[in-house]
Design a protein that fits this description.
about 75% helix; 2 domains
Amino acid sequence: MKSWIRQHGLALRNAAVRIAGKPGSFIFNVIVIALALMLPVAGLTLLDNLKPVSRELAVEPEISVFTSADLPRERAQALATDIRRVAQTNGVTVKLDFITRENALAAMKERAGLSDVVTTLGSNPLPDAYVIKLGNAEDAAGARRIDKLAEAIARLPGVETVQLDSAWVKRLAAVLQLAANVLWLLAATLCGVVVAVVFNTIRLQVVTQAEEIDVARLLGATDAFVARPFYYTGALLGLGAGIVALLGVMAALSVLNISVGELAQLYGSSFMLSPLAPEAVALLLAASTGLGLLGAALSVRRALSRSN
């Protein structure tokens, strides 16, 4: 175990010495990789900030349930139990508001220009109704559950009409899903760019140090011993690029928040763009380090296999 730690410590020191020998080249490569990483990092940050906003926009969509005009009041009130049962079966959280036909008629009279119209109707033509406020509708799966709930409520005895406008929920979910898919495709493409840049950088280092590698092999060095410093160089490239990318996105957020804050105040909101959570930052740094290590591993294995 001590020998393994000492070998990796030696490899890390050799990688640091090589980087210190040509700091300009290392910094340039870090910046190039960081520019490629900034786009997916910025996109992930924006999506993370938009999730709470989408939940606020999607909060409590409603279903209007109208009973049959001749349904007795007791039976209409008893529908609440059936609606809650159906909602629980479909996995949807609901809040019920029972509106009697008398209250509905009074509300119509209070509206400007409708009092005379209501008076000419004579008897009350309005049915008892429920307004169902819904939860779990902030994504496409939630919208589908609500559609099924509306269909199930429409089949209940005593229900005449069910009105549901969930198209806007589906559109919002579709837009966010499209943005997420585009972001992942972009991230996959730029990850390939990162691997390619690290691959080429390590390949040039291997070519430059070809004579040193040959001498080390003559002295009994294994391919694993030769490759370790290059692995660490690639990993440090990825880690440095990840840090620069995150710092760049945080700097961009601080600039954008000036305009975002002014716009939010016009709408009576205190919304501001927030940086990623520490867990997400750690995951992104691990991913960028892994991409650097992958690029280095591919490059070194290819170079060493050709020299054998």
